[in-house]
């Protein structure tokens, strides 16, 4: 297991302080960590293709690293497999991988990841292992895990990198109903940032406005 590294984490703590807070009452969420989702997508909602991402945006990798450093990340088995073996498990973070396949679980564990058989178990195990409540538990994808995190009420926030790119893909971001998910922050305030390779992108956070069973988690 990779243990949190506080020494590299000051930028992450500053940025995470801006994460949307749940709409539920303070009583309902007391002591629970934030459980935001994080992904990068094209303007058309593509997040993946053929087991990878159909773009190269180092600025987004840096953003992802900054936001998740020192925090647990929960991902599906296909997302785990999409990571280059040289950075798998992603360092300085607990990598919790969901798989229903025992032989794949053994391979993931041998490579340094932790495994759980479903999202509920993954979340429970992260909390059981002495998780510091001031640290978010990140939902790291892919589509199947985002979708379950939303439908189960586990997550109330999304940190999204939108890339101004028109490409096809086989995996899409989950639908966030604008009536239920408000735009919380966007950077820059208007227009786009431009990467060193010329790609245009922006960072958005969205917050679920309905307080439902915030933080109760999957059942
Ligand atoms: N752009 C981004 O920010 C971003 C982020 C993440 C992922 N991605 C992309 O998304 C794609 C992968 O996403 P995906 O939706 O196809 O797959 P995924 O969600 O990463 O993984 C799906 C797998 O996870 C396991 N799983 C998920 N939920 C489960 C449950 N409730 N119970 C048991 N097992 C469960 C199953 O593994 P088993 O089959 O082993 O049982 C399932 O086949 C890749 O192309 C990746 O590059 C992009």
From TrEMBL:
Q: A GO term (biological process) for this protein?
A: one-carbon metabolic process
Q: What are the protein's UniProt keywords?
A: NADP, One-carbon metabolism, Oxidoreductase
Biological or metabolic pathway of the protein: Cofactor biosynthesis; tetrahydrofolate biosynthesis; 5,6,7,8-tetrahydrofolate from 7,8-dihydrofolate: step 1/1
The first-level EC class reads oxidoreductase
Record EC number = 1.5.1.3
Give all residue intervals belonging to the DHFR domain. Answer: 34-208
Q: What's a single GO CC term here?
A: cytosol
Q: Which Pfam families match?
A: DHFR_1
Q: Does the keyword Oxidoreductase apply?
A: yes
Cite the GO molecular-function annotations of the record: dihydrofolate reductase activity; NADP binding
InterPro entries in the cross-refs: DHFR, DHFR-like_dom_sf, DHFR_dom
Tell me the segments the record calls region Disordered. Answer: 1-26
Q: List where Basic and acidic residues composition bias occurs.
A: 1-16
Q: Name the source's superkingdom.
A: Bacteria
Q: Which PROSITE patterns match?
A: DHFR_2
Q: Which family does it belong to?
A: Belongs to the dihydrofolate reductase family.
Its name, as the record gives it, is dihydrofolate reductase
Query: Can you name the source organism?
Result: Candidatus Nesterenkonia stercoripullorum
